[in-house]
């Protein structure tokens, strides 16, 4: 029996399976910064506030002067923001903040409700500011949907990148955001996360292969949803099934899978996990189990905006940051470069 269940074309956002809810890949070739964290380029002709058309290879998204996503609420799930290149400035309704990027991951449990902003400051004024990142939403089981909000930083230096050479000496790499590979495991996800229990088999891997290389994706437990997203390259082969870039592959989770890259280097995102298998009611930024709970989420948000917004504007940028940092709601400060 083939380990390939089906192949599908990637839409925007990418199609996901339980326990994952949403996945997008952002690649923006931002220009030089203008000294105020915005682009040193004209914004004429862009749909400011709703700019998703990749004019000149980059977007402002919902930002007006700085690219990014100003304050917006979430409840009932988690966001995993994996930044391979570029910078993200975080601020939230709990008065927590951070600047991260260049290999870092932020894992945020929205739980009972939080507002946050994710801005992309263009800090380099002498050259371009490329941004390469994934944002992934993973569901919470009903028992954890109203837990206290929390975020964890998985700094790049603590995130394993495992090298694997094939018989020809071609070296592929696996960046492990969640799960385990060849004895390597990243820092634990937040305590209430579905991914925190190893029995749930949650893997989030970024796989990079040089041209004409082979990589073996190991078997995991049965009964998991396993999807491989091919987002960079031209062609590849999954077992004996040819695929092309911007396609996804739904795989058997308990079977070993052999990948072959083509004439160009290839990059993949792997999302795997045991389904939560509960009803899903979702509307915009809220994901609960029933429509009544969605209505309650809107009512609670209208009441106090999940704690209000302690920042001077909806799109704060940390102009005074000397480097990467995370300031948590309890005042704890992390500075990985110090």
From TrEMBL:
<dbReference type="InterPro" id="IPR011051">
    <property type="entry name" value="RmlC_Cupin_sf"/>
</dbReference>
<feature type="domain" description="Pirin N-terminal">
    <location>
        <begin position="60"/>
        <end position="138"/>
    </location>
</feature>
<dbReference type="Pfam" id="PF02678">
    <property type="entry name" value="Pirin"/>
</dbReference>
<dbReference type="InterPro" id="IPR008778">
    <property type="entry name" value="Pirin_C_dom"/>
</dbReference>
<dbReference type="InterPro" id="IPR012093">
    <property type="entry name" value="Pirin"/>
</dbReference>
<protein>
    <submittedName>
        <fullName>Pirin</fullName>
    </submittedName>
</protein>
<comment type="similarity">
    <text>Belongs to the pirin family.</text>
</comment>
<feature type="domain" description="Pirin C-terminal">
    <location>
        <begin position="205"/>
        <end position="307"/>
    </location>
</feature>
<dbReference type="InterPro" id="IPR003829">
    <property type="entry name" value="Pirin_N_dom"/>
</dbReference>
<dbReference type="InterPro" id="IPR014710">
    <property type="entry name" value="RmlC-like_jellyroll"/>
</dbReference>
<dbReference type="Pfam" id="PF05726">
    <property type="entry name" value="Pirin_C"/>
</dbReference>
């Amino acid at each position: 029996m083939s380990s390939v269940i089906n192949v599908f074309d990637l839409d925007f956002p990418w199609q996901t399976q339980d326990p994952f809810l949403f996945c997008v890949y952002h690649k923006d070739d931002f220009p030089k910064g203008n000294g105020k964290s915005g682009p040193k380029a004209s914004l004429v002709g862009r749909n400011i506030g709703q700019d998703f058309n990749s004019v000149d290879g980059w977007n402002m998204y919902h930002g007006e002067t700085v690219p990014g996503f100003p304050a917006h609420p979430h409840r009932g799930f988690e966001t995993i923001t994996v930044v391979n290149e570029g910078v993200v400035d975080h601020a939230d309704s709990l008065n927590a903040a951070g600047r991260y990027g260049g290999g870092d991951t932020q894992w945020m449990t929205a739980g009972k409700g939080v507002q946050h902003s994710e801005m992309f400051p263009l800090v380099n004024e002498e050259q371009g500011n490329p941004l390469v990142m994934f944002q992934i939403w993973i569901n919470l089981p009903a028992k954890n949907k109203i837990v206290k909000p929390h975020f964890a930083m998985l700094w790049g230096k603590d995130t394993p990148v495992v090298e694997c050479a094939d018989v020809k000496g071609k070296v592929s790499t696996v960046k492990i955001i969640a799960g385990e590979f060849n004895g390597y495991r990243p820092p634990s996800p937040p305590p209430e996360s579905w991914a925190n229990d190893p029995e749930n088999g949650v893997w989030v891997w970024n796989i990079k292969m040089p041209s004409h290389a082979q990589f073996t994706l190991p078997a995991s437990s049965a009964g998991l949803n396993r999807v491989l997203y091919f987002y960079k390259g031209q062609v590849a082969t999954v077992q004996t099934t040819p695929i092309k870039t911007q396609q996804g592959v739904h795989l058997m989770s308990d079977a070993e899978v052999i990948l072959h890259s083509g004439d160009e280097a290839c990059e993949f995102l792997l999302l795997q996990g045991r389904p939560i298998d509960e009803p899903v009611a979702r509307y915009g930024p809220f994901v609960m189990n029933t429509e009544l709970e969605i209505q309650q989420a809107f009512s609670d948000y209208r009441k106090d905006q999940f704690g209000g917004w302690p920042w001077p504007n909806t799109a704060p940028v940390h102009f005074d940051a000397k480097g990467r940092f995370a300031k948590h709601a309890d005042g704890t400060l992390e500075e990985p470069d110090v």
